Amino acid sequence: MTINATSAAGADQSTAANKRAVFRPPVPEDGPAVWNLVENTPGLDSNSVYYYTLWFRDFADGSLIATVDDEIVGFLTGYRRPDDPETYFVWQTAVNPRHGIPFLGVKLFQAAADQQVAQGARYVEATVSAENKAILMVLKQFAKKHSAHIETQVLFPSNLFPDGHHDEVLYRIGPLTAG
């Protein structure tokens, strides 16, 4: 599945208005570029290049890549929970802030989640730090768009992690219906 996301109307015609993001499933060869994006995005947990390469082999069906002119400018990794296949869990997402397309992160999240809902997911989950205002806004917009409820709870307390890691608060959106 490939999805186009164009920039917002009213943008400078010579720059953002001419840019088009293409959303596509990842392939293992995207691993190094996504790793580099994560390494250059403050606040994201770091994983290895191998992790992303393997993820894009085994979990490509729940993930998306955003490109502009064939350059990776964003990604989202997610999967259907094995113990609850009606739940789509969003693991990690990031966009390059210099891509020039307003709300690209929102569009990427919505495209991935809507794709999973169309395939039978009834819930979308993500864990988020209370300080991550951007993704909290995305989750709230998605829930509003679907007239869905958001439940929250601490999934993993900070004491499970080294170096002062924050609580991993689970946001569960649903139930959702396709359409």
Report on the structure:
- This protein has helices at about 30-40, 50-60, 105-120, 135-145; strands at about 5, 20-25, 65-70, 70-80, 85-95, 125-130, 150-155, 170-175.
- About 30% of the residues are buried.
- The protein has an 8-stranded mixed β-sheet, with helices on both faces.
- The model is unreliable at about 5-15 (pLDDT under 50).
- The two termini are about 15 Å apart.
- With about 180 residues, it is of the alpha+beta class.
Describe this structure in a few short sentences.
The protein has 179 residues and is an alpha+beta fold. Helix content is 26%, strand content 32%. The longest helix is centred in the middle third of the chain and has 15 residues, at 104-118.
